Amino acid sequence: MLKKIIAICLLLNLTACAELQQVVNQIPQGGTLSNADIAAGLRQALDQGIEKQVSKLTQTDGFYKNALVKILLPEELQKVDKTLRDIGLSSLADEGLKLMNRAAEDAVKEATPIFVNAVKEITFDDAKNILLGNDEAATTYLKLKTESPLYSKFNPVIKNSFDKVGANEIWSSLINKYNALPLTADVNPDLTDYVTGEALKGVYTMIALEEKDIRNNFAARTTTLLKKVFALQD
């Protein structure tokens, strides 16, 4: 009896694998769609996400007034913010937050050329895996291809932005006031690195938002090619 059960399980597994492979193999045919069409459709979806969503982040308040990506103080400095507000220095705390977000808005302007190059490199195999993936598969692909070069681009821009608007002086004033308070531990975070990381998170959050919309909302497929390609994953 045990041998029969094992044999049945193996048969079911083999059948399931064969069916899955058949689905994967049939995707390129997709009616009149060629392999090139499918890859082009995925490129178009990412381009739409970059143009529609990432461009918003480069505008004034693109980060600061967007609850999804607004950069807040790092965890170790949350106590600084609360303490300053408790002693009537809310305006100073607000200015510190605003300057961090302004630096991120400046940095994201450097992103588009890197994204464009990464999108151009999508192959059919990449596209097929993305199409069969989850709601953020295309964004995950883009993150893998761009995170390192974007960090290298963002970091000096954020540092220069801090220098340009005097953020270093404001943060120095803010942190020094906090450190001067009794019974507080001194804080000295690397804010440039922190804001760079948060800016990257914001960029991928917005691209993922658009990708999810295209995958799940027919009306978001604004071209004939997007409609045809993403119909394959519906």
Architecture blueprint of SSEs:
Layout lengths: L1 H25 L8 H23 L20 H9 L3 H19 L3 H9 L3 H8 L5 H29 L1 H13 L11 H26 L7 H8 L3
Question: Can you describe this structure?
Answer:
The chain is mainly α and 234 residues long. The protein folds into two domains: 1-30; 34-231, no CATH class. It has ten helices and no strands. It has helices at 2-26, 35-57, 78-86, 90-108, 112-120, 124-131, 137-165, 167-179, 191-216, 224-231. Helix 2 crosses helix 10 (224-231). The longest helix is centred in the middle third of the chain and has 29 residues, at 137-165. The protein is elongated and about 70 Å long. The two termini are 41 Å apart. It holds the Pfam family DUF4197. This is DUF4197 domain-containing protein. Keywords: Signal.
Shape: elongated
Give the strand content.
under 5%
Query: What's the overall average pLDDT, rounded?
Result: 80
Largest sheet: none
Protein name: DUF4197 domain-containing protein
Signal peptide: 1-18
Pfam family, one: DUF4197
Keywords: Signal
Describe the structure in brief.
The chain has 234 residues and is mostly helical.
Salient structural properties:
DUF4197 domain-containing protein, 10 helices, single chain, mainly alpha, 2 domains, 234 residues, 72% helix, disordered N terminus, DUF4197
